[in-house]
Amino acid sequence: MATALASQLNTLDLAQPLPLDSGKVLPNVRLAYETYGDLAADRGNVILIFHALTGDQFVARTHPITGKPGWWQRMVGPGLPIDTSRYHVICANIIGGCMGSTGPADLAEDGQAYGMRFPVITIRDMVRAQVALLDQLGIDRLHAVVGGSMGGMLALSFAANWPGRADCVLAIATTARHSAQNIAFHEVGRQAIMADPDWRGGDYYGGGRKGPEKGLSVARMAAHITYLSEAGLTEKFGRRLQDRDAKSFGFDADFQVESYLRHQGIAFTNRFDANSYLYITRAMDYFDLAEEAGGRLADAFAGASGTRFCVISFDTDWLYPTAESRNIVHALNAVAAPVSFVELSAPFGHDSFLLDVPALDRVVKGFVG
């Protein structure tokens, strides 16, 4: 069994206010990040990993709140597909997040928590902050950028908007834009949060007040269903009944799958901020690389023809199905960017990129090298 990898947890205050796509400027931006492996003397061995919506910087180290292993501990470490005996790995908590980087729970210049006064952010804003982080660390070019799900969006945005700064880009289980169905699922979660009386218009920080835990829990439950596959749920739970005496969240849990989802929802509230969830899901919904480039996805990658790409999808992922990955590949082909594409078979749905899929390990190791 994998053990937690030694890492270094850092925070960095950006030297300049961060300009945002909205036209506003975010002052006093702090990024929390972890590093794994030694930095080469020429700084040429850096891999930047972007995390997913509910992820954070704790890629391969025990999470300080949950006590669980890092979310990609099976992938990052000495001798693993992303080999920290060769590469210096960086993963930062995104802006808008809630694990140390500047977000809605932080204090604005008036000394009060931002709450819903936090400016609207985009996927490109999140990447812009991390590019500023790299600049301050003196890292001009990356060996690779890697990301799954929302992390894949960030990786694609990096390639499109900062071409030439990475030798290779690995985008897993992702999309170049959110579909109406994706937006609809996110809106269900946002409405659950905002309908919770404890949300208070986003002003629930301080004074011992309780946040919208019930609403956030429901949002997590709804989203978690989209991360799984029907076959996986059927195999794991079927229609098996729960212990009739078991209670979760104040209601009888008749089916095992109900109890599982309720546990996922409640556990999530212990480590995630509801306002961060609102802002990050909205940023994902706004994401549309083609629109950024005037309506044609290929034009988004016009400057990235010198970068190698690898795009990976999973056959049971109905959140970001293989057709979405093919759209990305076709756009890259149109600008003659070198790109590899593979659809992997796995029973876990969208979450396959986080779970034990040996074929994924082989592809990542072969591409990142």
TrEMBL record:
- Primary location group: cytoplasm
Record-linked Gene3D superfamilies: 1.10.1740.110, alpha/beta hydrolase
Which EC number(s) does the record attach to this protein? 2.3.1.31
Q: Where in the cell is it found?
A: Cytoplasm
Per the database record, which ranges form the AB hydrolase-1 domain? Answer: 45-355
Q: Report the superkingdom from the record.
A: Bacteria
The residues the record assigns to binding substrate are 220, 351
Keywords in UniProt for this one?
Acyltransferase, Amino-acid biosynthesis, Cytoplasm, Methionine biosynthesis, Transferase
Residues of the active site are: 149 (nucleophile), 317, 350
Catalytically driven reaction(s): L-homoserine + acetyl-CoA = O-acetyl-L-homoserine + CoA
Q: Which NCBIfam families match?
A: homoserO_Ac_trn, PRK00175.1
What is its quaternary makeup?
Answer: Homodimer.
Q: Which family does it belong to?
A: Belongs to the AB hydrolase superfamily. MetX family.
Q: What is this protein called?
A: Homoserine O-acetyltransferase
Q: Which organism is it from?
A: Alteraurantiacibacter lauratis
Q: What is the lineage of its organism?
A: Bacteria, Pseudomonadati, Pseudomonadota, Alphaproteobacteria, Sphingomonadales
